[in-house]
Amino acid sequence: MFDSVDEVAQRLAGAGYLTSTAIATTVFLADRLGKPLLVEGPAGVGKTELARAVATATGSELVRLQCYEGIDEARALYEWNHAKQLLRITAGRDEGWHEARADIFTEEFLLPRPLLTAIRNPSPTVLLIDETDKADVEMEGLLLEVLGDFQVTVPELGTITATRKPFVVLTSNATRELSEALKRRCLFLHIDFPEAVRELEIVRMQVPEISEVLAASLVRVIGALRALELRKSPSIAETIDWARTLLALGADHLDESVVHTTLGVVLKYEADRKRAVTELKVFG
């Protein structure tokens, strides 16, 4: 998909994602080596957006598996359309079981979920396995099996092997430690909140109408908020939302009134808001 590290940076920028040399290099190597990319970091630093940007930059289809506690093989890989199978059995009730079984375990009744969808897709695909750390350890075993050979065995249909391997991105907020086996399978990339200069560039790219002065003030306040011990630090997306909010209100600078009325855009817990008001003089 990419011929050089510089091309990665340029094409991701064209997709609206400003990247560092470290990020561009790791994406390039994951593509060139054909290895999954494990991206770890705090919530809201752009891990999921990186996968979306890679898909956009390469014209690939994005297939997303959102992980959560209790997710199982049926939700991640495939399951059978039991209601449709039951209707088929009922319609052919005069048939024997062997005939009916041959009819209902076919492609017509298969419901592919994200992992199988990505493996079977003949077109360029970015497979995003989002918030992997929220899934159970058992799900990691399934991921190891699938990502190892990029093939899936459906007992009734046989083994399905990828004709075109997807570009795989796994994200983790590091709420729990992932297994060593899964980490060995992947290239690792840690993304943290960007430095002020880079975040200012991101804001100016995503909200080009904002003035340099207002954008700089906003980024400075966001940095101060992240320095506090908050329950949830503002994400990059929330920084952009705040910039758009200020524009919508016609604000040309940050003052106490504007900040107090719009703080809910970036702080989503009352305790965080109170701490910000108390500890940051900019909030009066």
Automatic annotation (TrEMBL):
GO molecular function, one term: ATP hydrolysis activity
Domain AAA+ ATPase residues, every copy: 33-198
InterPro entries registered for this protein in UniProt: AAA+_ATPase (IPR003593), ATPase_AAA_core (IPR003959), CbbQ/NirQ/NorQ/GpvN (IPR050764), P-loop_NTPase (IPR027417)
Any Pfam family: AAA
Highest rank taxon of the organism: Bacteria
Record field: transmembrane: none
PANTHER family: MAGNESIUM-CHELATASE SUBUNIT CHLD, MOXR FAMILY PROTEIN
Name of this chain's protein: ATPase
